[in-house]
Amino acid sequence: MAEVLITLGIIGIVVSMTMPIFIANYRKKVIEARLAAFYSKINQAVQMAEADFGPKEYWDLTPSAGYVTDENGRPDYSKPKVLAWFNQYMRPYIKVIKIVPEGGFIVVYLIDGSCMRIAGQSIQFYPFAKDYKGFKDTSISGIRFFTFYLSTAVNTDDSAQIQRAKYHMGKAVEPYVFEWDGREESLVTNTYYGCYESNPRERAYCTMIIMRNGWKIPDDYPLKIR
After folding, report:
1. What's the chain's average pLDDT?
2. Res. 1: pLDDT tops 90
3. Is 204:141 a contact under the CB 8 Å cutoff?
4. How far apart, in whole angstroms, are the C-alpha atoms of residue 35 and residue 141?
5. CB contact set of 212 (below 8 Å; sequence gap of 6+)
6. Cα separation of 59 and 151, whole Å?
7. Residue 173: helix, strand or coil by DSSP?
8. CA 178, 181, 184, 185 torsion-angle sign
9. In a 3-state reduction of DSSP, which class is residue 130?
10. What is the spatial distance between Cα 88 and Cα 69, in angstroms, rounded to a whole number?
């Protein structure tokens, strides 16, 4: 009996030590799969919308922040502008569970258990919708949510703007690399958007690191998936 109890105790210790590893590996695999699927589906949706409505640069609505106003110019806080844009151009082509307005933006819950927060042209994608608890904790950026950028403007005479957005110009939804200088190391070291642990801001460039690795989180990824 004593030997059985000792054996069970050892098994319990081994399980307690390995379970976090199994959970982390599971999250990693799901994150990779859902990131790749989201990137494909959102861009397919844009392409289908363009087939029906013409080039996105000339759509009547844009995914801007703020609220729809009434005839007196007063904002209707139940109608974010981005909701009207999404309902017209994206919702017909994406399978959605629900849409929740949030402070001038929207959170869209998808059928695979993920969600996306559309904040103007910036999109924060959560592979696990349950991880979304309001956009207030950027320390989970690059770990539990990943940032994309929707490009809607390609025609501009502003050379500075072109330079800042050159990796998004003429594209649809891509990993966020606004103001990227094109250097691989900058995806990690950029002061504002770099994918490094101590970055107190949104680590928007993390998504590009994963994309450039075939939508697989690389072994030398700067952050710990948890």
Report:
1. 87
2. no
3. yes
4. 14
5. none
6. 13
7. strand
8. negative
9. helix
10. 17
Are the C-beta atoms of 66 and 104 separated by less than 8 Å? yes
Convert 85-123 to b/e letters by CB count within 10 Å (16 or more is b).
Answer: bbeebbbebbeeeebeebebbbbbbbebebbbbbbbbbb
Chain centroid offset of residue 97 CA:
17
Across the range 101-118, mean pLDDT stands at 94
Q: Which two tokens stand for residue 5?
A: 């109890």
Let me know: does 172 contact 46? Beta carbons within 8 Å.
yes
| pLDDT tens, position by position, 34-53 | 999 999 999 999 999 999 99
**By C-alpha distance, which of 76, 90, 82 is closest to 62?**
82
Q: Is the pLDDT of residue 14 over 50?
A: no
CA 214 – CA 192 distance, rounded (Å): 24
Structural domain spans, the chain: 2-211
Whether the CB-CB separation of 151 and 172 falls below 8 Å is answered with yes
